[in-house]
Structure formats: structure tokens, C-alpha cells
Amino acid sequence: MLSMSELAMNPNRKVTTVCYGKKQKWDDREEAQAYFLEAMMNSDGAEYDRYSGIYIQLQNGLSYCTDEDDEEDE
Predict the structure, then answer these.
(1) Which of the 8 DSSP states describes residue 71?
(2) How much is the pTM?
(3) Please, are residues 13 and 28 in contact by the beta-carbon 8 Å criterion?
(4) How far apart are CA 61 and CA 44, in angstroms?
(5) What is the pairing mode between strands 22-26 and 64-66?
(6) What is the pLDDT of residue 69?
(7) Other C-beta atoms within 10 Å of 60: how many?
(8) Is the dihedral of CA 73, 37, 22, 57 positive or negative?
(9) Nearest Cα to 15, choosing from 6, 7, 25, 5?
(10) Distance CA 7, CA 72 (A)
(11) Helix spans in the chain (H)
């Protein structure tokens, strides 16, 4: 099993984000992180939760990050 630090060091710099239904492809993970960090710092409430969720996914090395809830099946 991969440790968290290995997951966070995804060698693929490209990433796809989906926020408020808008899909965006980034060539640079760090650029996407900077965008969502700034958005997170300039928002609050539900908007903050969306941006911070994507930012955390980016930090964890995921290549597809979304603000969509997986609880729809319940």
C-alpha cells in the first residue's frame, strides 16, 4: 500500500478539476493549487467547502479533483 507521501508526489503534473460543474484541465498541478488556494481564501461557507475540498484533493496527488458529492447514492 502506498503511503500518503508517495501519493502526494504524483509525477504527472497534469490535473483535471470540476468545480460548480465546470471542467478545467491544468498542465501544472501547482498552478491549479494556487488558483484553488486563492479562491478558498476569498470565500466562506459552502463556497469555501467546495474550493477547499478540491485543494485538498490536489494536495493528495489526485489527477481528477471534483467538488461533487459522492453521497448521491445513499
Answers:
(1) G
(2) 0.77
(3) yes
(4) 24
(5) unpaired
(6) 75
(7) 12
(8) negative
(9) 25
(10) 26
(11) 4-8, 29-41, 45-59
Yes or no: say if 13 and 65 are a contact pair by the CB < 8 Å rule.
Answer: no
One pLDDT digit (tens) per residue for the chain, 74 residues:
555 554 555 566 899 999 999 999 999 999 999 999 999 999 999 999 999 999 999 999 999 999 987 544 44
The cell for 36 is 484553488
pLDDT of residue 73: 42
Confidence (pLDDT) at 7: 54
- Cell numbers at 55, concatenated: 485543494
End-to-end alpha-carbon separation of the chain, Å? Answer: 28
